């Protein structure tokens, strides 16, 4: 499909009902050429980094289904992403469910092509290890900052002996590889029991700003937004949202749930407060449909994707001087 001279639009639910048509992210066209879009919506159906409850490999398909509930304009910011940018579903990154290291290479290669084409990726996982090969694909020329929503820091070193690659290690590896600037990284919603008293030593020692859920509750949303904006600054920034950052009362379908998290409204409010930052991509990960037959976790995932999509489109528009 040639989208060079037009902005693709979602299938109109007033003409084709939401349960009809082929499911794609936001009911947008499916294209294969990243050069044809400004923002590439991508699924990464892989959970080879999961250490306990698997199932996030099924997340992208269910998020696509639930994204049919999204409409065209954000009701608070009035951002109309499809008027500001060419957005389409680029399908799924190639994965290997058997060979972890091969999967990481395949995912990296897919995102490198997106980056080389000048498009920004917005992805649905998949477990949180997918963010590492995404960074390898888009951040080799300069480290990026990150606003990270999660119950867990994901900066552990090794699991099960000498295994350096799990969904609990991606951001330690990203810092070590020079892909992620820890001093421009803020982690929001961290909570839950830990393996040892020094579990957070790498995150805090490297300069990451860790906002534990207890601080979030104490200082309030507006101060959390202000701190996230301060840490991110003006440099290129990526948003990574693990749905276990939200309380499992709202997102039970995830691999490592932790009680005492954000509400869905709190999560949306913080995301909306990031408008105007220099954003270069994002992901929503750890939606595991087998643990939520209601589909509500996938609906949360799709809604968060739309929230981030609006931020990315607005950021792109600002850079273009619109």
UniProtKB/TrEMBL annotation:
Single GO MF annotation: agmatinase activity
Coiled-coil regions, chain positions: none
Entry keyword Chloroplast: no
Keywords: Hydrolase, Metal-binding
Pfam families membership: Arginase
InterPro entries: Agmatinase-rel, Ureohydrolase, Ureohydrolase_dom_sf, Ureohydrolase_Mn_BS
Broadest EC class assigned to this enzyme: hydrolase
Domain of life where this protein originates: Bacteria
EC number: 3.5.3.11
Signal peptide positions (record): none
Family listed: Belongs to the arginase family. Agmatinase subfamily.
Protein's name according to its UniProt entry: Agmatinase
């Amino acid at each position: 499909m040639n989208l060079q001279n037009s902005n693709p639009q979602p299938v109109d639910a007033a003409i084709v009902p939401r349960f009809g048509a082929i499911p794609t992210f936001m009911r947008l066209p499916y294209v294969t050429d990243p050069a044809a879009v400004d923002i590439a919506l991508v699924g990464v159906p892989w959970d080879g980094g999961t250490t306990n409850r698997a199932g996030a490999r099924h997340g992208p398909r269910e998020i696509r289904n639930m994204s049919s509930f999204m409409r065209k304009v954000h009701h608070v910011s009035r951002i109309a992403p499809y008027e500001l940018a060419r957005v389409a579903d680029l399908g799924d990154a190639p994965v290997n469910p058997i060979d972890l290291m091969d999967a990481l290479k395949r995912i990296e290669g897919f995102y490198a092509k997106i980056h080389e084409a000048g498009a920004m990726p917005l992805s649905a996982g998949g477990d949180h290890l997918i963010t590492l090969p995404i960074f390898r694909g888009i951040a080799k020329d300069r480290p990026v900052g990150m606003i990270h929503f999660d119950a867990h820091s994901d900066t552990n070193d090794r699991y099960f002996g000498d295994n350096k690659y799990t969904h609990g290690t991606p951001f330690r590896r990203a810092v070590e590889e020079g892909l992620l600037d820890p001093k421009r990284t803020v982690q929001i919603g961290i909570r839950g029991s830990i393996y040892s008293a020094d579990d957070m030593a790498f995150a805090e020692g490297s300069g990451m700003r860790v906002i534990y859920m207890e601080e979030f509750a104490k200082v309030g949303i507006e101060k959390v937004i202000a701190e996230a904006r301060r840490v991110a600054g003006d440099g290129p920034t990526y948003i990574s949202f693990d749905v276990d950052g939200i309380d499992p009362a709202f997102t039970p379908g995830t691999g490592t749930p932790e009680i005492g998290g954000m509400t869905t409204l709190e999560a949306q409010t913080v995301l909306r407060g990031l408008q105007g930052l220099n954003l270069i991509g994002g992901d929503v990960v750890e939606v595991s449909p087998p643990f939520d037959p209601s589909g509500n976790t996938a609906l949360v995932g799709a809604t968060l994707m739309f929230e981030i999509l609006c931020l990315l489109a607005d950021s792109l528009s600002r850079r273009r001087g619109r």
